[in-house]
Structures are given as structure tokens and as C-alpha cells.
Write a structure and sequence with these properties.
It is built from 10 helices and 13 strands. It is of the alpha+beta class. The chain has a domain of 238 residues: Sandwich (Jelly Rolls), CATH 2.60.120.330. α4 packs across α6. The chain is extended and about 125 Å long. The N and C termini lie far apart (167 Å).
Length: 375
Amino acid sequence: MAATTPRSIPDIPIDFRAPPPSPIASGRRSSFANDDVLTEFLETSLRVPDLILPDKIFPKQNCLETPPKVDFRSLCSDHDDAASLSDVVSDSLARIGCFQLVNHGVPRELMTSTREVAARAIFQVSPEKRATVTRSPPEKPWGFEEYHSDEDGSELSEEFVWCRDHDLKLKMEGISQIGYSKFSKEMEALMSGIEKVAEKILPVMLKNFPGELVTGGTDDEEFGTVCCVYKHSQDSMAEGWANSLKYDVIRMLIRGTDYSHALCLHVCDGCSEFHVYSKKGWLSFCPEQGALIITVGDQIQATSGGLYKQVIGRPILKGEKDHDSISIAFLYSPPSNRNSSPSKKERTISFGQQALLAIILTLIFQFFIFVYKKC
């Protein structure tokens, strides 16, 4: 049997073709009517706009007038000119929020001596010792504020808050070795004179607004008048000092002051300029020597229905001596009915005390009956 020859398998070419390429974009235009408009819109929306910001956010000086100088004795007298002076005060408070008070009776020698003692007894305390007397409201509304410094670390301004508080006196006498007791006596005498002036001019300022003064309703009222002692930079034209002042003013314009008060009485005899800042603008003037500068507080603003606006006052001091860089601001609030409430509370007898008294009287009565029966 013949062998079978295997049949050859023809070579069949296998066509492994790749998938067709992606379609190439044709020359047709976009479905949008105008590509230029779309491109311009996308470029504009993705670009950060060029904002035109003001060079300064500090209040601009928009007033060049000097607040009126008002004679204290004439203002608080029964003379015919008292009414006209009262109108002058009302007009000045409504326009710029301050006025100057002359012939007020507070001795200039007392104001100068208090500033001299403050320069030694307060601001010569080392920063290490100030830590125990640093303000931390509302627990400690008195003491040192953290002072501002420039980029080089040099001191720009300092602030110390003083009030009639026994704990403050004890702490300061422990860290101040240079006459803090004398400072307290000087400050107490100066504050007493300032408060007498404030008590007399406040009714005049509020004569057109009958009713009770709208108080802040804070716990700080128990300390009475609060005094802020400032040590200003000797280099008043330094850029760092100016920036620090702007920061303080803007912060206070936004937040307000830490202490609710009716009015502020500034002792800054010898200052070359006095600045008054408000949300409406900035006023600077050369104050009268020996005058007390009176500015409106938040309580008067609330009582007047916003007619008298609260303002912030800051002096510019350019002296050669230590006390020439010291200014004092008294934040005055009149005594409220709250001050008399503790005494009323002490005169009341609680239910527990009444029960204890009844038990004692019963025992005494039983004792007398026992003695009477024995006799």
C-alpha cells in the first residue's frame, strides 16, 4: 500500500489590522457663532481683576477747626452767659465730639507732679516684673498693657490702667521700688479733682436729654473712674510710631474702648497737638495750655440717641523730660444705683437667719419658763 503523502496546507495570510485612527478634526468651525467672543470671555473670567485700593484706610483729616475754649466757672454758674456757653458745648459735641475746658480749678502743679511720679514709679518697672500686673480683662481690668514696638524692637508706646483697687496697690508696691505709694496719693488727689469737674459739667452736657444716663452695664463700674496713663514715644515722627498709632485707632474705632464711660477728661498739659479720631474723620489742633480736653464716651452717645458721637482723643508730646511724654486720660462714669444695692442687701435678713433667730428665741423662752418653775 502506497504511503499517503501529507497534503500541504496553503499559507493563508492573516490580516491583523490596527483599529482605524481617531478622526482628525475637520476644518469645520465651532458650533459657537463667534469663537473670538468665547475666547475673550474665558480670558476675562480667569484673570484676577486689577483692584484699585485706597492708599490709606486711616481716617482722613477733614476738619481744621479748633474746639472752643469754655470757662468752667462761667459754664456752671447761674449767670446769663451760662446758657450761651452751654449751647456752645452742645454744638461742639454734636460736630466734633470734644471741647476744651479752662479755669477748671485743678492745679497745674498737681497735674505735672502726677505725671513726673508716673514716669518713675510706673514705667521704670522692668518687663520681667510687669508680668504679674499685666491686664487680663475682665478678671484684671487694671495693670500694664503689652507695649508696642517697631521692627527693631525699640519701644513705641506703653499704657498703664489705674483704678481704686486694693489688689493693684499691693502688687505694684511689691514690684515698683520708686515711689508707687507717692504716685497713688498724687493720683487719688488728681482723680478727686477731675471727678468734681466731671460731676458738674455732665448735667450741662445732657441738659437737652432728660432722663437717666444710659450706662454700659458692665462689671467695671464697681471700680468707678478708670485712669489710663500713657507713655508716648519721644520720636513722634517715627514711621513705626505712626503705624502703631494708626493700628490702635483703627482697632478702637471698630471695637470701641474696653471701658464703658460717659466722658473722658484728658490731662496732657504741654502737648504740641491733640488728635480727635472718629468714624467721620480726624481733627488735630493745638490745645490751650493747662486746659482739660473733654471727649464724648459711649454712654453719652447712647443717651443722646447718637447726636453726640463717641470719639477717641490722643495727644502728641514732644518734650525733653521724662514726664513730657506722659499723658493721663480719666474715663468717668457717674455713680449708678448699683453702688447702693450692696448696702440694701446687707440690711435684709435671709430666711435661714430668721429660722435661726426663731430657734434661739424659743430656747431662751423655754429657759425662762424652767427658771420660773424652779423658783
